[in-house]
Amino acid sequence: SPRQGPGPAAEPPDPSRLRPHVLLAQENTQIRDLQQENRELWVSLEEHQDALELIMSKYRKQMLQLLEGRKREDAEPVLKVHQANSGEIESQIDRICEMGAVMRKAVQVDDEQFFKVQEKLAQLELENKELRELLSISRESFEVGREDLPD
């Protein structure tokens, strides 16, 4: 059988043989297809982003609720301990105030006692001085009396 080459319909057209306006039309079609595909991809990307944002907002909301619930549970024993501590601190402050009042009273009593002792000491010193003066006067008179005595 005689060998037949492929006919012109089976061969893709050689771009160098095509006219420029046909090439431009093909390129324009490809560009339009690519632009359409880009638009579709952008829409798909935006839909995915919206879905992801929705999922993340729900996740954040649930986490906040969980944390708030846990905070309340965690805060309750801390609050009880704090109340107990503050009660204990108040009673300690009351005791300190009572001790302060007792100490003030003791200082006041000590001051009064000190002034009494000082007063007594001053009286004794005055008495001592007067007694010495009396003693010296009696000595002098005794000596003068001895001089008057005959030998």
UniProtKB/TrEMBL annotation:
Keywords: Coiled coil
Coiled coil: 114-141
Pfam hit, one: SIKE
Superkingdom classification of source: Eukaryota
Family: Belongs to the SIKE family.
Record protein name field: Suppressor of IKBKE 1
Phylogenetic placement of the source organism: Eukaryota, Metazoa, Chordata, Craniata, Vertebrata
